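Issue: ligand-bound run for nicotinamide-adenine-dinucleotide - logging full I/O for the record.

Environment: standard queue, default settings, no custom constraints.

Inputs:
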Amino acid sequence: MSAIKIDQGADGVVLATMDLAGKPMNVIDAEMAGALAALVEALESNASITGLILASGKKDFFAGADVDQLWALETAEQGFEASMHFKSWLRRLEQAGKPVVAAIHGRCLGGGLEIAMACHHRIVLDDGKACLGLPEVKLGLLPGGGGTQRLPRLVGMQQALQWMGEGTEVRAAQALSSGLVQALAKTPEDMLAQARAWIAAHPKPQQPWDAPKFCYPGGDSRSPATAQLMAIAPSMASAKSWGNYPAITHIMSSVFEGGLVDFDTALQIESRYFAACVVSPESRNLIGTLWYQLNAIKKGASRPQGVPVSKVNKLGILGAGMMGAGIAYVAAKAGVEVVLLDTTQALADKGKAYSQGVLDKAVKKGYRSPEQREAQLARIQATTDYAALADCQLVIEAVFEDREVKAQVTQLAEAQLAADAVFASNTSTLPITGLAKASARPDRFIGLHFFSPVDKMPLVEIIVGEQTSDETLAKGFDFVQQIGQTPIVVNDSRGFYTSRVFATYVMEGLAMLKEGVHPRSIEVAGLQAGMPMPPLALQDEVSLSLGVHVADQTRKDMAAAGQRYEAHPGEPVLRQMCEMGRIGKKAGRGFYDWPEDGQGEKRLWPGLQDLFPLADEQPDQQEIIERLLYAQANEAARCLEEGVLRSVADGNVGSILGWGFAPFFGGALQFINTIGPAHFVQRSRQLAQAHGKRFKPAANIVDLARRGIFFDQGGA
Ligand code: NAD
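Outputs:
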């Protein structure tokens, strides 16, 4: 069965409906590419065809390229050929001498938008679901189907660079006002009627870029405005990416160089840059982790097999503070009834008011209707009454980080719950097995560690206690997916996986400060390493006093268990700063002086240089970067070795979605693959000798190096 259904009307116009069998979305796989080629040949050779409407039989117009096909490209030559081959059909489509209209509904992304831009006219169904964009950069690629050439010729270079550089997806109204599409339709029927009318009125259309006097909107590469853009765009891009994402540079080069030559040469230039991207380690890492490993997780790789899929209709949340309020918002958004409980009605109401605030903004921006807002708010019941929890299938506690308080609410809630209901803790530091001691049924006790702010952070770290049953884990996993978050599953441990590894990044920054490394060098190194925030600023955000509190608690717990506590060399820095009242952003004073009104710039506190005098000899910047990355990767490998991590995929995906580990390295474990385990081991040993045994390479990395193999890298 062809991927495109053909329906020719009496007027000769063909309605071609793209509908790839057996797939939820249209993608450019071999079948679709073959069907498109056949369609173009028919358009060229069949005189009875007077025009073409390209539409989709799926929920969305088109998802983009087939990632398996991209992944299979092993050399730059193959990348170049594949890109040129696909484009040659699009070029023939727009030069066949007959009108072609794209009738777009839903999402129209990547290669799908490139197909649409090769049509002479684009109409979008304006039903609130349309969304158009070229998101290739997110996988370390550039649009290689003509996107870097057609988009700037439609919307101007500056707008195109911004959209392609950030992978922006635009809504119908912006697509129209920017010139990306030419018309909006109210209904599918209206869209088809408009398409037919346009075809009837334009029997011999020509693409703007094929017209002899074509001008880019806003000017081409020779215009003074673009000269200015060319001067500043690279520095603006590298200020954000620190040169870690070659695809961004290649997109710029393709756009600017393509603006100096004729359209067909420009398409060749684009393919050369596409080829460079497709074989880059950055792209392989991004695709391996954020496509293959993430999809494996979403398909339930870490979920126990054989347990039927469950659904939560009613959720209880204990504690309506920052986390409880956020969890209530995402759950109610996903259609779950929520009981939001706190010690007073005023506190519970305040937690619900968080949802009101977010929804009011969404309504104002047009992302949500007032009716949707009211329906979502109606699903949240703010209360102080434990009896309201009676028919909840799941309760998540998000009360203070205090064992006593958590034990008390666990017992109060469990007294109301059905025997098969699950109780979860959102603790960020307290081991789950210990908290489960307060529970009458520890097999139904689990950790669901959300991140802040909950509505922006996609990850939930599921922590399995010693007695947590497979059924409970499966229920926790299903709930996380039900509310649209990404679950990783880890075994119980102090700090679990994410907090434990994340802490090594921040603490390494603090240790270097103590050694006399210039604080600015440390902060810049964090960003150069690809982390979203530098270590000292991050510690200020999290609060230094919390760091001291966690260290004290750990010391106490380990002493009670008869274990020896060894302080990280960065720990004294936390204590010294806290003693001076410099406890972080919430006090306006930490490693930085924070602006009082929250508006101005934060500045590194000048007193740091008196407290931690600069060493006479400053380390090489690369060494600072390496220390920040190696510390995390080594700890992640230890988590895998100790069985805290259950899979490499959870480790990589968790590190990127949880604390923003440099995505172009593909996550904390893939970083070791990228460096090469043998080199990692050798460099770690040098770092251990110079800076302490925390850098001693984990035994599983040494084993990889010895055997010449890698951690699982994802991929088809
Ligand atoms: P918070 O102080 O903002 O909120 C805690 C809420 O619990 C308050 O509204 C408080 O009134 C309520 N509460 C206290 N005792 C209660 C009781 N006996 N019964 C009912 N409600 C009670 O704290 P938070 O930042 O939302 O953190 C909550 C939990 O989530 C903690 O365990 C914390 O470690 C964890 N956590 C926090 C973050 C974060 O970034 N803040 C991230 C992940 C996990």
